[in-house]
Amino acid sequence: MGSCNFKSEEPDTTVSISKTHFQFQYVIGKGGFGKVWRVELKRTREIFAMKEMAKARILAKKSVNSVLNERRLLSMLKHPFIVNMKYAFQDRDNLYLVMDLLTGGDLRFQLGKHKKFTEEQTKFFVACIIIGLEFLHTNGVLHRDIKPENLVLDNRGYVRITDFGIARVWNPDNAKDTSGTPGYMAPEVMCRQNHGVAADYFAVGIIAYEFMCGRRPYLGKSRKEIRDQILARQVQIKRNEIPEDWSVEAADFINKLVQRKPTNRLGLNGPTEVKEHPWFKDFEWAKLAARSLVSPFIPNQSDENFDMRLQLSDDPWKDADSEALQQSATLLNSNTAQNLFAGYFFDINQNSQTDNLSTK
Question: Can you give the residue ranges of the Protein kinase domain (predicted)?
Protein backbone atom coordinates (compact mmCIF):
# COMPACT_ATOMS: atom_id res chain seq x y z
CA MET A 1 0.00 0.00 0.00
CA GLY A 2 1.12 3.54 -0.51
CA SER A 3 1.22 6.15 2.19
CA CYS A 4 -1.52 8.69 2.68
CA ASN A 5 -0.64 12.32 3.18
CA PHE A 6 -4.09 13.27 4.41
CA LYS A 7 -4.31 16.58 6.22
CA SER A 8 -5.86 16.20 9.62
CA GLU A 9 -7.55 19.57 9.91
CA GLU A 10 -11.30 19.84 9.29
CA PRO A 11 -12.45 21.67 6.16
CA ASP A 12 -13.86 25.17 6.33
CA THR A 13 -17.51 24.89 7.26
CA THR A 14 -18.51 28.34 6.08
CA VAL A 15 -21.72 27.81 4.16
CA SER A 16 -21.13 29.41 0.77
CA ILE A 17 -23.31 27.07 -1.25
CA SER A 18 -26.69 25.50 -0.61
CA LYS A 19 -29.64 23.76 -2.24
CA THR A 20 -30.98 27.09 -3.51
CA HIS A 21 -27.96 27.54 -5.77
CA PHE A 22 -29.10 24.59 -7.90
CA GLN A 23 -31.92 23.94 -10.33
CA PHE A 24 -33.20 20.40 -9.77
CA GLN A 25 -34.03 18.85 -13.17
CA TYR A 26 -34.98 15.19 -12.70
CA VAL A 27 -34.14 12.02 -10.77
CA ILE A 28 -31.46 9.81 -12.34
CA GLY A 29 -30.97 7.22 -9.62
CA LYS A 30 -31.52 6.18 -6.05
CA GLY A 31 -29.42 4.92 -3.18
CA GLY A 32 -29.93 3.62 0.32
CA PHE A 33 -30.54 7.10 1.74
CA GLY A 34 -32.34 9.00 -0.99
CA LYS A 35 -32.38 10.11 -4.60
CA VAL A 36 -29.76 11.15 -7.12
CA TRP A 37 -30.70 14.22 -9.15
CA ARG A 38 -29.46 15.82 -12.33
CA VAL A 39 -28.95 19.44 -11.29
CA GLU A 40 -27.71 22.69 -12.78
CA LEU A 41 -25.58 25.17 -10.84
CA LYS A 42 -27.49 28.36 -11.60
CA ARG A 43 -24.50 30.69 -11.50
CA THR A 44 -22.35 28.82 -14.05
CA ARG A 45 -24.97 26.66 -15.86
CA GLU A 46 -22.77 23.61 -15.13
CA ILE A 47 -24.54 20.25 -14.90
CA PHE A 48 -23.84 17.87 -12.01
CA ALA A 49 -25.23 14.80 -10.26
CA MET A 50 -26.47 15.46 -6.72
CA LYS A 51 -27.01 12.79 -4.07
CA GLU A 52 -29.77 13.90 -1.71
CA MET A 53 -29.54 11.79 1.45
CA ALA A 54 -32.14 11.91 4.22
CA LYS A 55 -30.54 12.32 7.64
CA ALA A 56 -33.40 10.38 9.24
CA ARG A 57 -32.65 7.44 6.96
CA ILE A 58 -28.93 7.68 7.71
CA LEU A 59 -29.61 7.67 11.46
CA ALA A 60 -32.08 4.78 11.17
CA LYS A 61 -29.48 2.68 9.36
CA LYS A 62 -26.70 3.72 11.79
CA SER A 63 -24.67 4.95 8.82
CA VAL A 64 -23.45 8.36 9.96
CA ASN A 65 -19.81 7.23 9.94
CA SER A 66 -20.21 5.83 6.43
CA VAL A 67 -21.52 9.03 4.86
CA LEU A 68 -18.99 11.19 6.69
CA ASN A 69 -16.22 8.81 5.63
CA GLU A 70 -17.27 9.09 1.96
CA ARG A 71 -17.19 12.88 2.07
CA ARG A 72 -13.84 12.88 3.84
CA LEU A 73 -12.23 10.53 1.32
CA LEU A 74 -13.68 12.33 -1.70
CA SER A 75 -12.36 15.65 -0.39
CA MET A 76 -8.89 14.12 -0.64
CA LEU A 77 -9.27 12.20 -3.90
CA LYS A 78 -9.31 13.65 -7.41
CA HIS A 79 -8.64 11.58 -10.51
CA PRO A 80 -10.02 11.23 -14.06
CA PHE A 81 -11.00 7.58 -13.45
CA ILE A 82 -13.16 8.19 -10.37
CA VAL A 83 -16.34 10.23 -9.98
CA ASN A 84 -15.13 13.38 -8.26
CA MET A 85 -16.90 15.50 -5.65
CA LYS A 86 -17.46 19.21 -6.29
CA TYR A 87 -19.56 20.30 -3.31
CA ALA A 88 -21.02 18.92 -0.10
CA PHE A 89 -23.48 20.69 2.19
CA GLN A 90 -26.51 20.06 4.38
CA ASP A 91 -29.75 21.45 5.74
CA ARG A 92 -31.86 20.30 8.65
CA ASP A 93 -33.23 17.23 6.89
CA ASN A 94 -30.72 16.21 4.23
CA LEU A 95 -27.09 15.87 3.21
CA TYR A 96 -26.17 16.84 -0.35
CA LEU A 97 -23.20 15.53 -2.31
CA VAL A 98 -22.57 17.17 -5.70
CA MET A 99 -20.52 15.07 -8.11
CA ASP A 100 -19.42 14.83 -11.72
CA LEU A 101 -22.39 13.88 -13.90
CA LEU A 102 -21.60 10.94 -16.15
CA THR A 103 -24.25 10.45 -18.80
CA GLY A 104 -23.40 6.92 -20.00
CA GLY A 105 -25.18 5.06 -17.21
CA ASP A 106 -23.58 2.43 -15.00
CA LEU A 107 -22.31 -0.94 -16.22
CA ARG A 108 -25.22 -2.77 -14.57
CA PHE A 109 -27.69 -0.68 -16.55
CA GLN A 110 -25.79 -1.16 -19.80
CA LEU A 111 -25.34 -4.89 -19.20
CA GLY A 112 -29.07 -5.27 -18.65
CA LYS A 113 -29.75 -3.30 -21.80
CA HIS A 114 -27.24 -5.04 -24.12
CA LYS A 115 -27.23 -8.48 -22.39
CA LYS A 116 -23.48 -8.97 -22.90
CA PHE A 117 -20.23 -7.22 -23.74
CA THR A 118 -17.55 -8.32 -26.18
CA GLU A 119 -14.04 -9.26 -25.09
CA GLU A 120 -12.68 -6.01 -26.53
CA GLN A 121 -15.24 -3.95 -24.62
CA THR A 122 -14.62 -5.89 -21.41
CA LYS A 123 -10.87 -5.43 -21.70
CA PHE A 124 -11.30 -1.66 -22.06
CA PHE A 125 -13.68 -1.48 -19.09
CA VAL A 126 -11.37 -3.59 -16.92
CA ALA A 127 -8.36 -1.46 -17.91
CA CYS A 128 -10.21 1.69 -16.82
CA ILE A 129 -11.02 0.08 -13.46
CA ILE A 130 -7.38 -0.95 -13.02
CA ILE A 131 -6.21 2.64 -13.63
CA GLY A 132 -8.70 3.91 -11.05
CA LEU A 133 -7.75 1.24 -8.51
CA GLU A 134 -4.06 1.93 -9.06
CA PHE A 135 -4.63 5.53 -7.98
CA LEU A 136 -6.67 4.51 -4.93
CA HIS A 137 -4.31 1.75 -3.82
CA THR A 138 -1.18 3.85 -4.32
CA ASN A 139 -2.73 6.35 -1.93
CA GLY A 140 -3.66 3.73 0.65
CA VAL A 141 -7.39 3.47 -0.09
CA LEU A 142 -9.36 0.23 -0.52
CA HIS A 143 -12.68 0.68 -2.33
CA ARG A 144 -14.19 -2.63 -1.12
CA ASP A 145 -17.39 -2.39 -3.18
CA ILE A 146 -16.33 -2.71 -6.81
CA LYS A 147 -19.37 -3.92 -8.79
CA PRO A 148 -21.14 -2.95 -12.04
CA GLU A 149 -23.51 -0.56 -10.21
CA ASN A 150 -20.51 1.45 -8.96
CA LEU A 151 -18.81 1.71 -12.36
CA VAL A 152 -20.19 4.58 -14.42
CA LEU A 153 -19.59 5.44 -18.08
CA ASP A 154 -18.96 8.92 -19.39
CA ASN A 155 -20.14 10.01 -22.84
CA ARG A 156 -16.92 8.66 -24.41
CA GLY A 157 -17.30 5.17 -22.96
CA TYR A 158 -14.64 5.52 -20.25
CA VAL A 159 -15.40 3.89 -16.90
CA ARG A 160 -15.09 5.74 -13.61
CA ILE A 161 -15.35 4.35 -10.07
CA THR A 162 -17.99 5.78 -7.75
CA ASP A 163 -19.59 5.18 -4.31
CA PHE A 164 -16.95 5.40 -1.60
CA GLY A 165 -19.33 4.79 1.30
CA ILE A 166 -17.47 1.71 2.56
CA ALA A 167 -14.04 2.59 1.18
CA ARG A 168 -11.35 2.74 3.83
CA VAL A 169 -7.80 3.88 4.31
CA TRP A 170 -5.97 0.58 4.53
CA ASN A 171 -5.22 -0.74 8.00
CA PRO A 172 -3.28 -4.02 8.44
CA ASP A 173 -5.72 -4.98 11.22
CA ASN A 174 -9.03 -4.66 9.34
CA ALA A 175 -10.68 -8.04 9.86
CA LYS A 176 -13.77 -6.37 11.36
CA ASP A 177 -14.44 -4.38 8.17
CA THR A 178 -16.68 -6.91 6.42
CA SER A 179 -18.98 -4.59 4.46
CA GLY A 180 -19.47 -5.17 0.76
CA THR A 181 -21.81 -6.73 -1.77
CA PRO A 182 -22.25 -10.53 -1.69
CA GLY A 183 -21.24 -12.03 -4.99
CA TYR A 184 -18.40 -9.53 -5.46
CA MET A 185 -16.97 -9.63 -1.94
CA ALA A 186 -13.59 -11.34 -1.64
CA PRO A 187 -13.55 -14.52 0.48
CA GLU A 188 -11.11 -13.01 2.98
CA VAL A 189 -13.50 -10.09 3.58
CA MET A 190 -16.55 -12.34 3.82
CA CYS A 191 -14.73 -14.62 6.28
CA ARG A 192 -13.69 -11.69 8.48
CA GLN A 193 -9.97 -11.89 7.77
CA ASN A 194 -7.50 -9.07 7.24
CA HIS A 195 -7.52 -7.92 3.64
CA GLY A 196 -5.68 -5.61 1.25
CA VAL A 197 -5.68 -4.53 -2.38
CA ALA A 198 -6.26 -8.11 -3.60
CA ALA A 199 -9.86 -7.84 -2.34
CA ASP A 200 -10.63 -5.19 -4.96
CA TYR A 201 -9.01 -7.26 -7.71
CA PHE A 202 -11.16 -10.26 -6.79
CA ALA A 203 -14.22 -8.10 -7.56
CA VAL A 204 -12.71 -7.11 -10.91
CA GLY A 205 -12.35 -10.81 -11.72
CA ILE A 206 -16.00 -11.47 -10.83
CA ILE A 207 -17.11 -8.62 -13.11
CA ALA A 208 -15.00 -9.90 -16.02
CA TYR A 209 -16.38 -13.41 -15.43
CA GLU A 210 -19.92 -12.01 -15.51
CA PHE A 211 -19.27 -10.17 -18.77
CA MET A 212 -17.79 -13.30 -20.37
CA CYS A 213 -20.25 -15.90 -19.09
CA GLY A 214 -23.39 -13.84 -18.61
CA ARG A 215 -23.65 -14.65 -14.91
CA ARG A 216 -21.67 -14.38 -11.71
CA PRO A 217 -19.70 -17.47 -10.61
CA TYR A 218 -21.17 -17.54 -7.10
CA LEU A 219 -24.93 -17.11 -6.75
CA GLY A 220 -27.24 -17.28 -3.76
CA LYS A 221 -30.19 -15.64 -2.05
CA SER A 222 -28.18 -14.65 1.02
CA ARG A 223 -24.66 -13.82 2.07
CA LYS A 224 -24.44 -17.22 3.80
CA GLU A 225 -25.40 -19.11 0.61
CA ILE A 226 -22.78 -17.24 -1.41
CA ARG A 227 -20.17 -17.73 1.31
CA ASP A 228 -20.89 -21.46 1.40
CA GLN A 229 -20.45 -21.66 -2.37
CA ILE A 230 -17.14 -19.84 -2.25
CA LEU A 231 -15.86 -22.11 0.51
CA ALA A 232 -17.09 -25.23 -1.30
CA ARG A 233 -15.36 -24.76 -4.63
CA GLN A 234 -12.80 -22.76 -6.53
CA VAL A 235 -14.38 -21.43 -9.71
CA GLN A 236 -12.25 -21.77 -12.83
CA ILE A 237 -13.24 -21.21 -16.46
CA LYS A 238 -12.27 -24.37 -18.34
CA ARG A 239 -11.07 -24.24 -21.93
CA ASN A 240 -14.27 -25.82 -23.23
CA GLU A 241 -16.33 -23.17 -21.38
CA ILE A 242 -14.69 -20.21 -23.12
CA PRO A 243 -17.11 -18.55 -25.57
CA GLU A 244 -16.04 -18.82 -29.21
CA ASP A 245 -15.34 -15.10 -29.52
CA TRP A 246 -13.20 -14.92 -26.35
CA SER A 247 -9.52 -15.78 -25.91
CA VAL A 248 -7.74 -18.25 -23.67
CA GLU A 249 -5.77 -15.31 -22.25
CA ALA A 250 -9.00 -13.64 -21.09
CA ALA A 251 -10.07 -16.81 -19.27
CA ASP A 252 -6.64 -17.13 -17.66
CA PHE A 253 -6.78 -13.51 -16.50
CA ILE A 254 -10.18 -14.07 -14.90
CA ASN A 255 -9.11 -17.36 -13.33
CA LYS A 256 -6.12 -15.71 -11.71
CA LEU A 257 -8.23 -12.88 -10.28
CA VAL A 258 -10.96 -15.07 -8.75
CA GLN A 259 -8.58 -17.19 -6.70
CA ARG A 260 -10.10 -17.75 -3.27
CA LYS A 261 -6.76 -17.41 -1.47
CA PRO A 262 -5.41 -13.85 -1.80
CA THR A 263 -1.84 -15.19 -1.75
CA ASN A 264 -2.61 -16.96 -5.05
CA ARG A 265 -4.48 -14.04 -6.60
CA LEU A 266 -3.28 -11.80 -9.40
CA GLY A 267 -3.05 -8.27 -8.02
CA LEU A 268 -1.77 -9.22 -4.57
CA ASN A 269 1.46 -7.38 -5.37
CA GLY A 270 -0.21 -4.39 -6.98
CA PRO A 271 -1.31 -3.18 -10.42
CA THR A 272 1.93 -3.82 -12.30
CA GLU A 273 1.47 -7.59 -12.33
CA VAL A 274 -2.15 -7.13 -13.43
CA LYS A 275 -1.14 -4.89 -16.32
CA GLU A 276 1.59 -7.30 -17.37
CA HIS A 277 -0.74 -10.28 -17.77
CA PRO A 278 -0.69 -11.67 -21.35
CA TRP A 279 -4.30 -10.58 -21.87
CA PHE A 280 -3.03 -7.00 -21.90
CA LYS A 281 -0.07 -7.67 -24.20
CA ASP A 282 0.56 -4.55 -26.30
CA PHE A 283 -2.26 -2.68 -24.55
CA GLU A 284 -1.62 1.07 -24.70
CA TRP A 285 -1.78 1.94 -21.01
CA ALA A 286 -0.25 5.39 -21.41
CA LYS A 287 -2.83 6.37 -24.00
CA LEU A 288 -5.63 5.06 -21.79
CA ALA A 289 -4.36 7.09 -18.83
CA ALA A 290 -4.23 10.14 -21.09
CA ARG A 291 -7.77 9.33 -22.24
CA SER A 292 -6.68 9.35 -25.87
CA LEU A 293 -7.94 5.87 -26.79
CA VAL A 294 -11.27 5.39 -28.54
CA SER A 295 -13.54 3.20 -26.41
CA PRO A 296 -15.01 0.14 -28.18
CA PHE A 297 -18.31 0.92 -26.42
CA ILE A 298 -19.85 4.37 -26.80
CA PRO A 299 -23.12 4.88 -24.89
CA ASN A 300 -25.97 6.00 -27.09
CA GLN A 301 -26.48 9.63 -26.12
CA SER A 302 -29.88 9.78 -27.80
CA ASP A 303 -31.15 7.40 -25.12
CA GLU A 304 -31.55 8.15 -21.44
CA ASN A 305 -28.99 5.91 -19.76
CA PHE A 306 -30.83 5.96 -16.46
CA ASP A 307 -33.87 4.19 -15.03
CA MET A 308 -36.50 6.82 -15.79
CA ARG A 309 -39.15 4.78 -13.93
CA LEU A 310 -37.81 6.38 -10.76
CA GLN A 311 -39.59 9.61 -11.71
CA LEU A 312 -42.97 7.90 -11.68
CA SER A 313 -42.96 7.41 -7.92
CA ASP A 314 -43.46 10.26 -5.50
CA ASP A 315 -41.71 8.27 -2.78
CA PRO A 316 -39.46 5.40 -3.89
CA TRP A 317 -38.58 4.86 -0.22
CA LYS A 318 -42.12 4.20 1.07
CA ASP A 319 -41.33 0.53 1.82
CA ALA A 320 -38.79 1.49 4.49
CA ASP A 321 -39.21 0.87 8.22
CA SER A 322 -41.51 3.80 8.98
CA GLU A 323 -41.24 3.44 12.76
CA ALA A 324 -37.45 3.66 12.73
CA LEU A 325 -37.64 6.61 10.34
CA GLN A 326 -40.12 8.44 12.56
CA GLN A 327 -37.87 7.98 15.57
CA SER A 328 -34.87 9.24 13.63
CA ALA A 329 -36.82 12.20 12.26
CA THR A 330 -37.75 13.17 15.80
CA LEU A 331 -34.09 12.98 16.82
CA LEU A 332 -33.23 15.56 14.16
CA ASN A 333 -34.91 18.20 16.31
CA SER A 334 -32.03 17.92 18.77
CA ASN A 335 -28.69 19.65 18.47
CA THR A 336 -27.02 16.41 19.51
CA ALA A 337 -28.25 14.63 16.38
CA GLN A 338 -27.48 17.55 14.09
CA ASN A 339 -23.97 17.80 15.51
CA LEU A 340 -23.28 14.27 14.28
CA PHE A 341 -23.09 15.74 10.77
CA ALA A 342 -20.77 18.63 11.65
CA GLY A 343 -18.00 19.29 9.15
CA TYR A 344 -19.89 17.92 6.13
CA PHE A 345 -19.40 21.08 4.05
CA PHE A 346 -17.05 21.06 1.06
CA ASP A 347 -16.50 23.47 -1.83
CA ILE A 348 -13.87 22.49 -4.39
CA ASN A 349 -13.22 26.17 -5.03
CA GLN A 350 -12.31 26.75 -1.37
CA ASN A 351 -10.81 23.49 -0.16
CA SER A 352 -7.25 22.45 -0.90
CA GLN A 353 -7.21 18.92 0.51
CA THR A 354 -7.55 17.51 -3.01
CA ASP A 355 -4.03 18.75 -3.74
CA ASN A 356 -2.67 15.89 -1.66
CA LEU A 357 -3.92 13.03 -3.80
CA SER A 358 -4.93 14.63 -7.08
CA THR A 359 -3.43 13.73 -10.39
CA LYS A 360 -3.88 15.31 -13.78
Answer: 22-280
Residue 78 among known ligand-binding residues: no
Please tell us whether the domain made up of 107-289 is placed in CATH 1.10.510.10. Answer: yes
For residue 282, indicate whether it is catalytic: no
Distance CA(277)–CA(216), nearest Å, equals 22
Catalytic residue (one of 145, 163, 177, 252): 145
Q: Would the pLDDT of 300 be above 90?
A: no
Question: Where in the chain are the domains?
Answer: 19-102+305-349, 107-289
Residue closest to 152 by CA, chosen among 98, 206, 102, 207: 102
What number does CATH give the domain 19-102+305-349?
3.30.200.20
Q: Band of the pLDDT at 358, cuts 50, 70, 90?
A: very low
Start-to-end C-alpha separation, the chain: 21
Give this prediction's pTM: 0.88
